[in-house]
Design a protein that fits this description.
It contains three helices and no strands. It starts with a helix and ends with a helix. The chain is elongated and about 50 Å long. The protein is an all-alpha fold. The longest helix has 29 residues, at 34-62. The relative contact order is 0.18.
């Protein structure tokens, strides 16, 4: 779970790094489009929300 949150923060705050780690290393001298960077950021925010909900549901079940 902590890896998911870490990956989401990379997607939100360092979109170029997230793009390079997922796709960029496949290609030589490739640059991400602005749409790809925006989608990385949106995906990171979405996954952070999902992770928070999952943590809440697990915590509520154990109490």
């Amino acid at each position: 779970m902590s890896y998911l949150i870490f990956e989401c923060f990379i997607s939100i705050f360092s979109t170029r790094t997230a793009w390079w780690l997922s796709i960029g290393w496949h290609f030589k001298d490739a640059e991400p489009s602005s749409t790809a960077l925006k989608m990385n950021r949106v995906g990171g925010v979405f996954l952070i929300v999902v992770a928070i909900v999952m943590i809440y549901l697990v915590a509520a079940r154990t109490l």
